């Protein structure tokens, strides 16, 4: 419950500073919160990063203003901190696929983002089967990309996955999958203001790909079947909104780890999706 309350308080902070450029690293540091841990939890619960949430909420508020028609476009542009009308028009087109002048006519078709609040519903019956495993640090060999934390959102992870699959790189990676974890591994961690994403396999073999290493940890593994981008998000929401309320264990969110298993495509609804949630050692 404490995690949910903190996220809701942070959403209030974003809403109160919706027009400003928020330095999330500084704000979280002032609050004594580790950014990667917080952003992992926020993204799992909200379905988008804090930066994406702020951007979508700001555009939604602008759309409501444009529909109301009480202020001139130039006044709205200045109020929400855009440099000029042209830069705002480009941002608005990118967000909604229409020009600001089409808003009133197409308002009911816009993908608006309303302010988010949570209803936590603990249940006795587990939604996903789970098991515990102690795992020493292991090597992941694969394709690595880094993203600016201000630009990163979860869609980029699955766009990268789809790109690797379409170009047969996942099949090539699986040739090196001689480690104890079988399947495609997706590993995210926060490093020096950037999000490092590795998609690869557990391996001890030499390969032409890049390497990274996980933390040694105890994990609780949740598993389901479905499209990875949707299924993983649903599992994370279950972990933070329900499972965590009943289990007296601290979640280690400094990194995230997912494993995909499939006999077909790794982006299909037949994919077995495992979320490996790391736990801090019990004291």
Low-confidence stretches: none
User: How many structural domains are formed by the residues?
Assistant: 2
Total strands: the figure is: 8
Helix and strand content put the structural class at alpha+beta
> N- to C-terminal separation?
21 Å
Number of helices: 10
Shape: globular
Secondary-structure element string: HHHHHHHEEHHEEEEHEE
Q: If you average the pLDDT, what whole number results?
A: 87
Percentage of residues in helical conformation:
40-55%
| Major pleated sheet | 8 strands, antiparallel
CATH superfamily of the largest domain: Regulatory factor, effector binding domain
- How are the strands of the biggest sheet laid out side by side? 1-6-8-7-3-4-2-5
Main CATH class of the largest domain = Alpha Beta
**CATH topology (level 3) name of the largest domain:** Multidrug-efflux Transporter 1 Regulator Bmrr, Chain A
Rg, nearest Å: 21 Å
CATH architecture of the largest domain: Alpha-Beta Barrel
The percent range for strand residues is 15-25%
GO molecular function, one term: sequence-specific DNA binding
Domain HTH araC/xylS-type: 8-106
Keywords: DNA-binding, Transcription, Transcription regulation
Protein name: Helix-turn-helix domain-containing protein
